[in-house]
Task: inverse folding
């Protein structure tokens, strides 16, 4: 199944999972996308590798920590994106929002697409019970112009 990426203004309701990459700064400021009390109870601080998910109606919402905004690199985004692909590959369509950072937006979107492609790869030729990923569409929030679409295509 071909994996496609689409640049969108915001994550559409049709996405079965809405995932936001968040920094430790966003969690500290209370702007991570979930109530601060909920994050504190779960022990989510936005550190690299941390995830927090919860049901939201008919879909799943999730936060994936990427560490400090000032230390964020494209490699950090790529690794977080690969984790997203492995964790949410059971959904046919997901939406992902990048965190505000000093990174070049073009490089950040490209790293996100690369990470999701690499993380969704499964070699199943010799596995009798291997399950391929269902992930077919990723909506990348933050801009829907032709330039943004070209970056992630």
Result:
């Amino acid at each position: 199944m071909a994996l496609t990426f689409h640049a969108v203004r915001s994550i559409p309701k049709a996405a079965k999972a809405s995932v936001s990459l968040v920094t430790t700064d966003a969690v500290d400021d209370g702007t991570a996308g979930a109530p601060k009390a909920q994050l504190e109870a779960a022990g989510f601080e936005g550190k690299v590798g941390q995830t927090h998910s919860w049901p939201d109606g008919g879909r799943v919402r999730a936060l994936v920590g990427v560490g400090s905004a000032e230390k964020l690199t494209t490699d950090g985004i790529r690794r977080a994106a690969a984790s997203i692909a492995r964790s949410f590959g059971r959904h046919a369509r997901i939406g992902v929002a990048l965190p505000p950072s000093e990174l070049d937006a073009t490089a950040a979107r490209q790293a996100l697409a690369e990470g999701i492609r690499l993380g969704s790869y499964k070699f199943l030729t010799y596995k009798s019970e291997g399950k391929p990923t269902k992930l077919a569409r990723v909506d990348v929030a933050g801009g829907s112009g032709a330039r943004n679409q070209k970056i992630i295509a």
Remarks:
- The radius of gyration is 15 Å.
- DSSP finds five helices and six strands in the chain.
